[in-house]
Amino acid sequence: MDLDAGTIKIERSLEQTKAGLRFKAPKTAKGKRTVSLPPIAVDALRSHRRRRLELRLALSHGKPEPGALVFCDHNGDPIPPNNLSRDRRRFVLTRKLPPISFHGLRHSHVSALIAGGVDVLTVSRRIGHASPVVTMKVYAHLFSETDKTAAKAIEAALRTGKER
To answer: Does 81 share its domain with 4?
Structure first.
């Protein structure tokens, strides 16, 4: 993470297997990427970092090493994905939030980008798809609204040209 630049690098993922936890590379070369963060996420991550540092100092663990995990247990070890999913599910239930899976959050993110008029190439790069074609195959149904926006843009351009 580079919170001053407002970016986060995605370089690996954590997999839980019968043999234990292991880090692995993303599925495709495009999966390794740098993503820009909105200011609200940067603020939340700064707050998280501060709380983690306070906890480490209270436990006499000192400052984390450069490249330490952002989300980890109190020793700095990775949180098993199954535990993270379980804890998130409990959090969602106790707060009566919609029960959206982690993968569902990814779809919500893409939906918001498309609804906001972000082009398919940018969306594809942001979520690490191998190609914009993959993004189009999965999310084509969401682009119908942007087509209506395109029609309105052409209408406005034609009307402006007509008035000259």
So the answer is: yes
